[in-house]
Amino acid sequence: MQIKSSYELSKQSKQEFFTTHWGSPQMVIASGVFQCDELEGYAVLADDGTIAGYISYVIDGDTCEIISLDSLVEQKGIGTALVQKAEEAAKQAGCSQMKLVTTNDNLHALGFYQRRGYQFSELYVNAVDKARRIKPEIPLVADNGIPIRDEILLMKKL
Q1: Which residues form the domain of 24?
Q2: Which of 19, 64, 107, 137: disulfide with 95, CB 3.0–4.6 Å?
């Protein structure tokens, strides 16, 4: 598995990745509005050089916040490797905790992070309504039929 720093990737490849998988490089969550293609992060590259997985994060004081995590191939360890890379970077930067926000419909992510030591910390009821005012392309209902409306903060001590 080849992992590259976001700084080693072209701006265009990052923009295309986020536009394809998130509608745009912009991420709107309870903690703010982020341009994922401009953040620190890591990518797993496929054999053909395309991005097979990507994590972006920001460090603020002693906290590292994961802003986005994508793995295009399930059950290959891509997501786990990227989270571990971000956690290592956070420790090296002096962080004592990790955090992230995901939506109520994202059952896969909620399970994934809990299996890696993350715990529920806060619930932001109807937060996605606020996010849609900035990024209207956020769907109302997920592919699994669950209405997308709330955000959940997960935390992990390093």
Answers
A1: 2-157
A2: 64
Residues 6+ apart with CB under 8 A from 138: 23, 28, 128, 131, 132, 148
In angstroms and rounded to an integer, the radius of gyration of the C-alpha atoms of the chain is: 15
Q: Are 101 and 63 in contact (CB under 8 A)?
A: no
pLDDT at 15 (0 to 100)? 93
Distance CA 44, CA 54 (A): 6
pLDDT score recorded for residue 150: 97
CB atoms under 10 Å from CB of 132, counted, come to: 16
Domain count, the chain: 1
For residue 119, pLDDT over 90 is answered with yes
Beta strands in 6-150 (DSSP E): 26-29, 32-35, 40-45, 51-60, 63-71, 97-103, 119-124
Compute the distance between CA of residue 128 and CA of residue 126 in angstroms, rounded to an integer.
Answer: 5
Q: How many residues does the chain have?
A: 158
The domain that contains 89 carries what CATH number? Answer: 3.40.630.30
